[in-house]
């Protein structure tokens, strides 16, 4: 079972991944940019560390060795002699920022470094006037400075009495180096800006393009689905698939997946840099990170439930309001406003409860998470401070830790909250994948005929929409090319179903339908539809587009061109549709109650027109008023899905059956009423 | 219904909000004091020989603050966000109650989707403004002021340098925020264009297929999708720069600080501890800038929403008439006197209808589609407003009766049946608080739906409506009739809710109705003429005029429209009975 599930998921992912094909190069570029950005971002706190350790806070310390040789002294002399200033005897000033980390620990072990830091001024290569300035200051404060060759040395604590300006002159070299470093930082910042703008843009750009492609693919697939699919699926649901579901995937792609990559890289990078700075402190912080991760995971689980509740309560509210507005007439007529308001309050308080639960979830987890991050700050300060006292950590590193901790924790917390987006995207992907698996109505083997004559034959056709109740029962009839066939019967007798079957909206369960002698099962639905013009009873679309050109010769259509207003009555619309259907000049014309809303005069004109054109095309006519069917070559009387009588008007009248009675009565009614 | 503003809504929960703001301030001050502790700690490491004890002390201070912050963080959320949830809850109840009080015409002129959006989304946006909007705005200002104060306390000169990039940041957030918002609105509107296109196509799929317009529709959808794509790309051009720009400016402020602050530390203007404190403060400054941009946005949306909600609140509720006693009990004689009615678009629906029936009698109304049958009964119930002195109940002008009286005595079953999601029982009792099971069963039997209900999986407890068992049109119609019968009205008006019933069931329901309504007034609209055969009087409408009026036998004798319609119908009924006969023979 698990395996099946996994392979199903893999197929969905594969399907999703297929849409990225044209953009893979761009995606790779943005990934590279993103990685570079992460590395550069990691550098920013490190630069601060360097600035503090090397320039702002004096980095020279005094090292004193016992008399006599030891292993460590040898190591010192071999590695650091060129970075140190001999102070006479076995004591040296050494630039601690140059000392390797592992050696630092050795230094501490041997207990030979003083806590006092020293300011060292290298006078070699300085200009004359600066040199004079420096020596002036040195002379002004006797006892503070020592001169050792090219170097002027002073203890950091002993320069406290010297004023700011003089310190500025003395440490001009460090200030210059600091300036250079800041310049370097600014360059990095601009690079980060450039690269991250680029990758954000590329990412969103490709995301939008991919979604555009996905929407078109889904939409064109929906267009190809059979009518029975649309009967089963509400319009709202399908619309949501095409629009919102695609967007949900996009959101996951741009704000979760990619961010996830970046976050993972950043977390790894931060841990790596921290590890380099101090192992134990980083271990401690990692413990907190794990704790944070656990809390965040718990948070996520809780949040998932809470969000689901909130969403459900909102959906409930929405459908309640929709229902109430739909039934407002009955609610008001039966004076149930107060009771309905009480029911609404129940639904609304469910929403309140879900929201309050969400609030409590955030109100407990957020402070816990923030507590952990402040705990980390306290830990850094305490343990880091301790390491500084033991010379195991530099001050700059401590400051850098404070910055890195933020880079480490915020993505972990965000990840927990973004998991929701991921989940809804996963649901959306599944929905869309399912939708695209639906079989389209057009099959590859759909045939097209070279020449269309327009003969339609029903042979013992049985049809049911739901497989439960037969709508057509053993229906057989033939329309020869150029003939006019009229279907007569009450609403619900199955007339429109016959039209639906001819147009291949549905397939008959039993019997066959032949189009020019070919079973329509073999024919391409588009082929049939493009050779059959249909005017439906009450379906109107394409309103604006189709009323452009009225250069008709037929007087009956003139009224359309006269009416330039945007509003057409339903009678006018029917007229318009008949005109368009005739203009299409196809071999088969179907008019399904197409004149029902017209006045008698227009209707009779249309009948005349059809009569004049009879023989040019096969016509199937469905009409309520029998006056419209008199001219038909064949009249089929259908009742409850069954054919009762077939014949011409005259034949049927002679038969004195149902049609005869219907006709007599109806002509009476209409002559009376018009 | 008074006009609402964000402030007036907040004022209703002023103590809660105040408590929340106080706790929020405590959190903020605790947060602000952490860098100062870091400063002391760093200085103790570099200047004084603080050692382990000092470090432990400072670490414990921070720990203490962390605990205080966590506890109070819980409380500000509870107080302020809790209040905003209650504001949402109450406002939504109030809004819904108002909505229900509006006249029916209001609902025909409004899209359901819009009203849903008002009740759910807009009120949500108002809650956001009242909750997180208030928090973020207050928090942002407080932090901004105090961070700047803290930095300037350490070094006024450095404050100046810090303010420069942050004022640029503020400008960026406000200017960019505005433009991004504008572009985002364009994205939203092109998205609704896209949705509308998709909906239109799915809804009209049959015609599209019939006319083989798939290609054209696809192209139109593609251009709608492209418009949405373009508006998104337009947004991204700014959005892609926005976040990195904020990072850049915040980074530059660190750069500037490293440059100026580093030099000040070297020259001894500030200590290393102060240097560290300021750099932590600078890290904290980005949030208030972004926060205020966000707050402005959230509050602006809230205000837009409250404007929309107020617009509905300002629609007058259905007039509560003072005239007419509500105690009045209508006996049920009905009279139409020269009744004329035109719809607002000027189309005349009814012309000169004059007829009357005594109390306790039955009236059938028939006619073709759009002959004015429904309009006539809607006027009687004042769903549509008639003019004065045209319709009388018990001799009283309906305009003089309060709607409550009118609708208590006269019950209409509207043509469009309404089923809400709930059980069958809920749908029949229709929120009627005092109704017994026996009564429900009784009315279900009268409406000829009882046996079918028992056949449902859970009988009367079966859930129907959306997400429940879906009912056939005929079942819906009979439930609607049962619902009305339960009200035991003096006058029952049924507007053609037999259309989905077969003639056999229809006649059974009708004979039940005639039986229980004996002595009361029953008005039934039906397009199936034969159904009305047993009614005391039958009115035939055509084109908004009363063309025939009288008893069944009168009208048959007259041999007019009614008689002919009747015979057409009977002919079809005959085919039905032949069919039934044949089937019986076969069976």
What are the defining features of this structure?
heterodimer, A: 674 residues, 6-stranded antiparallel beta sheet, disordered C terminus, B: alpha/beta, Rossmann fold, 2 domains, 6-stranded mixed beta sheet, 4-stranded antiparallel beta sheet, 12 strands, 10% strand, elongated
Summarize the structure in words.
The complex is a heterodimer of chains A (674) and B (587). With 674 residues, chain A is α+β, with helices and mostly antiparallel strands. Chain A is built from 20 helices and 16 strands. In chain A, helix 2 packs antiparallel against helix 7, helix 9 (235-277) packs antiparallel against helix 10 and helix 19 (649-655) packs across helix 20 (658-673). Chain A is elongated and about 140 Å long. The two termini of chain A are 71 Å apart. Helices cover 65% and strands 10% of the residues of chain B. Chain B has helices at residues 6-11, 14-46, 51-101, 104-108, 112-154, 156-203, 205-210, 214-266, 272-313, 373-380, 403-409, 424-429, 437-446, 450-455, 473-485, 503-516, 552-558, 561-586; strands at 334-342, 348-357, 362-367, 391-393, 396-397, 410-413, 422-423, 463-464, 491-495, 521-525, 537-542, 545-550. In chain B, helix 3 packs antiparallel against helix 5 (112-154), helix 5 packs antiparallel against helix 6 (156-203) and helix 8 runs antiparallel to helix 9 (272-313). Chains A and B meet through helix 2, helix 6, helix 7, helix 9 and helix 10 of A and helix 2, helix 3, helix 5, helix 6 and helix 7 of B.
**Contiguous helical run count of chain A:** 20
Averaged pLDDT of chain A: 83
Shape of chain B: elongated
* Largest sheet: spatial strand order of chain A: 2-3-1-4-6-5
Total DSSP helices of chain B:
18
Into which percentage range does the β-strand content of chain A fall?
Answer: 5-15%
Q: Which residues of chain A sit in consecutive blocks of at least 5 with pLDDT less than 50?
A: 542-551, 670-674
Major sheet size, sense and barrel closure of chain A:
6 strands, antiparallel
Report the helical percentage of chain A: 55-70%
- How would you characterize the largest beta sheet of chain B? 6 strands, mixed
List how many beta strands of chain A DSSP finds. 16
CATH class identity of the largest domain in chain B: Mainly Alpha
- CA-to-CA gap between the ends of chain B? 67 Å
Radius of gyration of chain B, whole Å: 36 Å
Q: Under CATH, the topology of the largest domain in chain B is which?
A: ABC transporter transmembrane region fold
The number of strands of chain B is: 12
- The backbone outline of chain A, from C-alpha atoms, is elongated
Strand order of the largest sheet of chain B: 6-9-10-3-11-12
